[in-house]
Amino acid sequence: MQSHEQEIRLLPALPPSWVTGNITGIRCRGGITVDVAWANARVTRVTVRSASRTATTLSGPGLPAVRCDISPNRAMIIESKETS
């Protein structure tokens, strides 16, 4: 995970042996908490939360850049539409 200003890059350096998996509770800049799941080294599902209203852009393998406006204490779930 890499977070810069208002952008979060998911799985930027995923080891080749971690083809499938998930991580929960990763804290990013701006007080954002991220859970991410992946299969075939591609993002399949992301959940983002924040204690305060904020906005960020998420991107990663299998997940084109998505702008997220996060409401306080409400989970936002993004699922990849990629089928392969």
Looking at this protein, list some descriptive labels:
four-stranded mixed sheet, single chain, four-stranded antiparallel sheet, 60% strand, 84 residues
Can you give a write-up of this model?
By secondary structure, the chain is an all-beta fold. The protein has no helices and eight strands. The strands form two sheets. It has a four-stranded mixed sheet with strand order 1-2-6-7, with no helix packed on it. A four-stranded antiparallel sheet has the order 3-4-5-8, with no helix packed on it. Strand 1 and strand 2 form a beta hairpin. It is globular. The two termini are 23 Å apart. The model has no long low-confidence stretch (mean pLDDT 93).
Helix and strand topology:
Layout: E1 2-4, E2 7-9, E3 21-28, E4 32-39, E5 42-50, E6 54-60, E7 63-70, E8 76-79
Number of E-type strands: 8
Poorly predicted regions are: none
How many angstroms separate the termini? 23 Å
Task: Characterize the biggest β-sheet.
Answer: 4 strands, mixed
Count of runs of 4 or more consecutive helical residues = 0
Provide the spatial order of strands within the biggest beta sheet: 1-2-6-7
What fraction of the residues are assigned to beta strands by DSSP? Answer: over 45%
Structural class by helix and strand composition: mainly beta
Order of helices and strands: EEEEEEEE
Shape label? globular
Taking all Cα atoms into account, the compactness measure Rg is: 12 Å
What is the mean predicted local confidence, pLDDT? Answer: 93
Percent helix, as a range, is under 10%
